[in-house]
Design brief:
Blueprint lengths: L38 E10 L1 H10 L3 H15 L11 E10 L12 E4 L8 E3 L12 E10 L5 E3 L6 H8 L3 H16 L8 E5 L4 H13 L3 E6 L2 H10 L4 E4 L5 H10 L4 E6 L7 H6 L1 E9 L6 H10 L5 E4 L7 H11 L1 H11 L2
Parallel strand pairs: 7-8, 7-10, 8-9, 10-11, 11-12
Antiparallel strand pairs: 1-2, 1-5, 2-3, 3-6, 4-5
Length: 352
């Protein structure tokens, strides 16, 4: 096969015709040989995103069937992109070759986490995922992946276990954007001095706990953590990350609105960090006029969010969390180090 000219977006590895960007492609070229601006990583662990893993878990009878489904997706598409959810995850590995024109600043031997989605990353699995039981999001793996000129990767910190680093970096875009939005609301407050109320739906989860910590550090006046059941409420309360913890089904618009209001809302900033569909209306109702809703879930229907807000005559700004904010990985790791409650929740979720 002739080698097309390299493109920093990875367009040269797209096998669809006409060509589309790698994330939208049906199939990617996974050859080992690098173009001049690429990097090849020896993969040791995948982290499937929550929405994708939950869909696989619901659809297949057991862990063996989940493992077979992931292998089939990767072999068929040359990347890990769940055809039902459209999402993938990210990976950890060691740099094994760097093209002479790579702008990523990586060196052979660096242990890195990729901060771009597996949905656009050429991937080859060489061990049939033999060490994975199919029962969790973190997937031991031997194989290789290719990064493009515009990919992003972070060198792993030496002081954290690999699984913990991967778990944090998988969701590092959420706290960084939360902090930015809280800062914007503080700037807009002008001279009245009112710090924003921030509600995080799914506050006991990975992205949710980091977002609560980020909101507090950024100057939120009140933080509200919303969780679906008492066990998670007890966990989140014990960490002290939220000023108020409330129970609500995020799919129940009125119930979510009322729970946030009772806890001190409506929220100036509502951050949605749950991986179930149908949470759009409640998030809009829980948010004050002129407030902001940040959606950090691949299960979000953005048409439902936009049309729902219009139908409610709700004057709210809605943002799609795209997973990238400059400096997001270092910021998230810093939150983990400085907030014992965040680390406790992450470590608990990694327990076998």
């Amino acid at each position: 096969m002739d080698r097309p000219e390299s493109d920093p977006t990875g367009l040269h590895r797209v096998l669809d015709r006409p060509a589309v960007l790698p994330q939208a492609a049906e199939r990617l070229d996974t050859r080992r040989e690098l173009w001049p601006d690429e990097v090849r990583v020896r993969v040791e662990r995948l982290n499937l995103d929550a929405a994708s893993f939950r869909q696989l878990e619901r659809t297949h009878a057991d862990g063996d069937a989940v493992r077979a489904a992931v292998l089939d997706i990767v072999r068929t598409r040359g990347k890990m992109q769940n055809p039902e959810t459209g999402s993938g995850g990210m990976l950890v590995g060691t740099v094994e070759e760097v093209g002479p024109d790579s702008p990523l600043g990586l060196a052979v031997g660096d242990r890195v986490a990729t901060l771009v989605s597996l949905t656009l990353t050429p991937l080859v699995i060489e061990d049939d995922l033999a060490a994975w039981d199919g029962l969790g999001e973190q997937v031991p793996c031997d194989g290789y992946a290719v990064l493009f000129g515009r990919s992003i990767a972070a060198v792993l910190p030496d002081d954290l276990p690999t699984a913990l680093s991967l778990s944090v970096m998988d969701v590092c875009g959420a706290p960084a954007l939360t902090a930015r939005v809280v800062g914007e609301h503080l700037d807009c407050a002008g001279g009245d001095g009112r710090a924003p109320v921030v509600a995080v739906v799914g506050g006991a989860g990975k992205s949710g706990s980091l977002s609560l910590a980020a909101a507090r550090d950024a100057g939120a006046g009140r933080t509200i953590g919303v969780v679906p059941h008492q066990a998670e409420a007890d966990l989140l309360t014990a960490t002290g990350l939220a000023d108020e913890v409330c129970l609500a089904d995020a799919r129940d618009p009125v119930g979510l609105r009322d729970a946030v209001a009772k806890a001190g809302g409506p929220a100036d900033v509502t951050v949605v960090c749950v991986d179930v569909p149908g949470c759009e209306g409640g998030a809009v109702l829980a948010t004050a006029e002129g407030g902001t809703v940040v959606f950090f879930s691949m299960a979000t229907s953005f048409s439902a969010a936009a049309l729902g807000a219009e139908g409610l005559a709700a004057d709210v700004r809605m943002l799609v969390g795209n997973g990238y904010v400059p400096g997001h990985a270092a910021y998230a790791v810093g939150l983990l180090r400085s907030h014992a409650g965040v680390r406790e929740l992450f470590e608990r979720r990694l327990e076998p």
